[in-house]
Design goal:
The protein contains four helices and ten strands; from the N terminus they run E-E-E-E-E-E-E-H-E-H-E-E-H-H. By secondary structure, it is α+β, with helices and mostly antiparallel strands. The chain folds into two domains: 123 residues, no CATH class; 30 residues. Strands 1, 2, 3, 4, 5, 6, 7 and 8 form an eight-stranded mixed sheet that branches. A two-stranded antiparallel sheet has the order 9-10. The chain starts with a strand and ends with a helix.
Length: 173
Amino acid sequence: MKNLYLLPTYQQSRLVKIKDTFFLTTTDDIPGGTFYNIYITSNEEIGEGDWYLDTTVNVIFKNDKLFLNGTGYKKIILTTDPTLISDRVQAIDDEFLLWFVKMSYCEFVVIDWSPLSKNLYGWKIIIPQEEPKEEIQMYSEEEVYELLCHFFDDHVNAQNANISQWFEQNKKK
């Protein structure tokens, strides 16, 4: 069940998305980028003064009165949102942010209430040790040349295209 939510923000954030890729940044001048905050939720009861996410409309609220739990409401327990952090919601640590930019398709994280230091307890995100292996297809020069020849035979008049010359100029040495 999903417990990690990304919401765009107009405020500066360390997490920025450019096209389809997330980056960490320390600047607010990112042309073409959209800033995001991460919200990690739990199924805990939402009490007075707690921040929560209405997952049906993806909007953040602060509970200013006794709250009747309903479907779609999730208590926010960890975040990158400075407004919530200044109001007692635990900040997401840099170790997780560095992992997240590589694994931004993640919608669920395991969390545990554990010691953060000698006398301080808080939420700890369990970062998976094993990252999914990305399968990379490698081709030899001969295979690439063959693929190009087949492409040109199928789509272009191969007589007018000097494939050999183009291939030699553009291959990585």
